[in-house]
Every structure is written in C-alpha cells, then in structure tokens.
Amino acid sequence: MARLTITQSFREIEKLDFRILSVIEILMAKHEFVPLEEIARFMKYSEKRIENRLGRLKRMKLIFIAQRHYLGAALTFIGYDALALKALVEKGILAQIGPEIGAGKESNIYLGMDDDQIEFIIKFHRLGKLDFRATRKSRAFIAEKRHLSPLYESRLSAEREFKVLKDLYEANTSVPKPIAQNRHLVVMEIVKGQDLYRMKRNDFENEEEIASLFHNIIEEIKKVVSQGYIHGDLSEYNIRLNESDYPVLIDWPQFISTSDSQAEEILIRDCQNVINYFEKKFTVKTHYDISEIVKMMD
Ligand SMILES: Nc1ncnc2c1ncn2[C@@H]1O[C@H](COP(=O)(O)OP(=O)(O)OP(=O)(O)O)[C@@H](O)[C@H]1O
Ligand SMILES: [Mg+2]
Q: Domain 194-297, what fold?
C-alpha cells in the first residue's frame, strides 16, 4: 500500500510541485507550518497560484495544510520521501523503486534498481509520528526543540546509519555495502540469503556448522569493537546470513561508541542476545566468555 502511494504520486508530481515542496522543506526549519505568504514571497509567485497548488499537493498527501491564524503547509513523510527519491534519481543512483520487502518499528525497506538493473535496498527511516491535527505547539517550542521534528530525527538516523556502515565497510567488517544517503533514506547493497531468526536447526548439517557460524559472528563483533563501535541492538533479527552462510550485521542507527558511558553494559547485552539465541534455538553450548570482547575496550 505504501509502495503504491510512493510510486503513484511520484509520477504525478510536476516540476512546480517539487519546487514548492523544496521551498516548504527549507522554510520548515523556521516554522512548524510554513505560511502561504512566505512560500509565495520566496518563490516570487502570487499567493493565489501557490494556494491552488497546495490544494493539489494535499490531495496527493504530500503536505499537511493547517488553517490557524494563517494558512500554512508542512511536508508529510510522503512529501519528504518524494524529495529524497527525486534527489536519488537526479544523481543517477535510482531508476525504479519497489516492492516493499519489510517494515520495522522505525523503518520501511524497499527494493530499488538503477539504470543497469542492479538491485539494492532503500531503507526509509521513520522516527516519530507526523500527526499535525493533534499538535498545538507554539513556534517557540518548535524552534527550541527542532530536534524533535520527526522528519529531522529521521534524517539524523539515516545519516548515522550511513556513516557507521561506511566506516565499518571500509574496515572490512561484514555489513551491507553502503551506496548513498539522502535525507531520511539509506541506499545499500542487498544481502541475499536470510535473516538469522528464520534459520532452523535442520538448516545446518551438523553442530560444527552452527559453532562456526557463532564463531564468525563473534569475530565480526570484535571487528566492530576494534573500530570503536558497538551495535546496540544486536540479535538474531539484525543478523543476516549471506549466500555463503556468512553473517552480515545490519540495522545500525542506534550504534554507540566504545567510549560511551554505557558501552560495556550494551556490548554485554548484544553478545548475550546472540549467545542466548544459539543456546535456546540450536541447543548448543557456546562456552563463550564475553570478557574476551569486553577487554578489547580497555
Ligand atoms: N541490506 C539488506 N539486504 C537484505 N535485506 C535487508 C537489508 N536491510 C534490511 N533488510 C531486511 O529488512 C528487515 C528490516 O531491516 P532493518 O533491521 O535494517 O530495520 P528495522 O528492523 O525495520 O528497524 P527497527 O529495528 O527500527 O524495526 C531486516 O530484518 C531484513 O530482513
Ligand atoms: Mg532490524
């Protein structure tokens, strides 16, 4: 459903619509709802002309409109998606999008394709809920707590994820190769294979295979720590096995630094999640002593 919204409206969005969307984006740094008057002034168009267009953008669910002491507009997530997707298209990174292959608490995962039919993953970060009908915040409140704007938070989350993927990938850690980032979107390589949580005991030939997978995961965690990072949400849900059954660590926006005051606690929790999973699901004793990894941080 979300895919249809993205692709359908994307084709109908005209050049002027896009220009208005980007002006609203710029002016949202100052306003929760950007006054029609300011959009018109910024673009040197009559208010009447902009107002007509705003109605159209609202019907396409690209913006919210609020009528308070003035008529104002704000981007929806779909409007923000449109701006980010357009930027990726213009950079020659993206040619086609869809289908959606997964949705988490704070993201939607889509397949994308470039001009050479190479497929990749587009991760849409979505932090917080945009529901302007329910909010009645003053402008001062928004100005002070700009970081609480869901679009802004989502962009920060994508930037964080892209940066850590880049660092880790360059250091030969097993993470998806990052390709690009724009606003709240991260484009990365597809890890063909499957999520660890879907693996069954019978998918392995023998206990050695299970032990070797566990060993490889620990080796990857060590590489991450040696780069000064801790995943922070590591579990069978954020580990994929590639086509050679080698583990790939995914889903990074909540990573922390090994210099964080909670580093030890969080690293132990990450490792313990993996150990518990192997012991419960595959009924193998890992005999692993986490202090080996924890000591790396000294
Ligand atoms: N690079 C990738 N290649 C293949 N599949 C992926 C890739 N990235 C994500 N996926 C699939 O999409 C799912 C969700 O991705 P990810 O874990 O990054 O976000 P999330 O779980 O939605 O985030 P959150 O933890 O906020 O819910 C993964 O479990 C995996 O099945
Ligand atoms: Mg996840």
A: Transferase(Phosphotransferase); domain 1 (1.10.510)
Judge: domain 2-188, CATH 3.30.70.260: no
pLDDT digits (tens, 9 = 90+) for 112-149: 999 999 999 999 999 987 655 444 455 554 455 544 58
- If one counts every other C-beta atom within 10 angstroms of the C-beta of residue 148, the result is 13
Determine whether 289 is an active site residue.
no
For ligand 1, atom 16, the nearest C-alpha belongs to: 251
Task: Quote the CA–CA distance of 176 and 187 in Å, as a whole number.
Answer: 10
What token pair was written down for 136?
Answer: 């009645």
pTM equals: 0.92
Q: Other CB atoms closer than 10 Å to residue 83's CB: what's the count?
A: 21
How many Å apart are CA 169 and CA 16, to the nearest integer? 39
Ligand 1: residue whose CA is nearest its atom 13? 102
